[in-house]
Amino acid sequence: MKNRGIKHSDNWKTPKNLYDKLDAEFHFDFDPCPLNHDVKKWDGLEKEWGARNFINPPYSRKLKESFVKRAIEMSGNGKLCVMLLPVSTSSALFHDYIYPNTKEIRFLRGRVRFEGVNTSGKYVIGGSGGMHDSMVVIFGESV
Q1: CATH classification of the domain holding 111
Q2: Percent helix, strand and coil across the chain, each rounded to 5?
Q3: Which residue numbers in the chain have pLDDT < 70?
Q4: Contact status, residue 134 vs residue 85, Cβ threshold 8 Å
């Protein structure tokens, strides 16, 4: 992995235009991991999710895995879960959890330009794009 010695942040906002496009299609009513929320007040991995969820989880390995598994669990309870994830089709997470449980995968063209604090400590809107290609993974009701 590139830049292993650099401290990376898990706190990045989905670009408004991407979120708005997905929301217009899916009509979200809950986000279990909103930007800058206090996990001491409520934890998106423990709280009951809405009927139609948008999830841009933290991309650190353990948290990303936990949110994917929770989305699969919630979709099994009849909830729609739309996740924005880094593309990693060679991983065990993809082969063992995402691929066998998804209704649809959409690979996004170009790198998503997230909003947040970069490794230099500067707040950026858009920046030069994320470190990974991205995909939208849909768990739950047929679309």
Answers
A1: 3.40.50
A2: 25, 20, 55
A3: 1-12, 36-37, 39, 116-131, 142-143
A4: yes
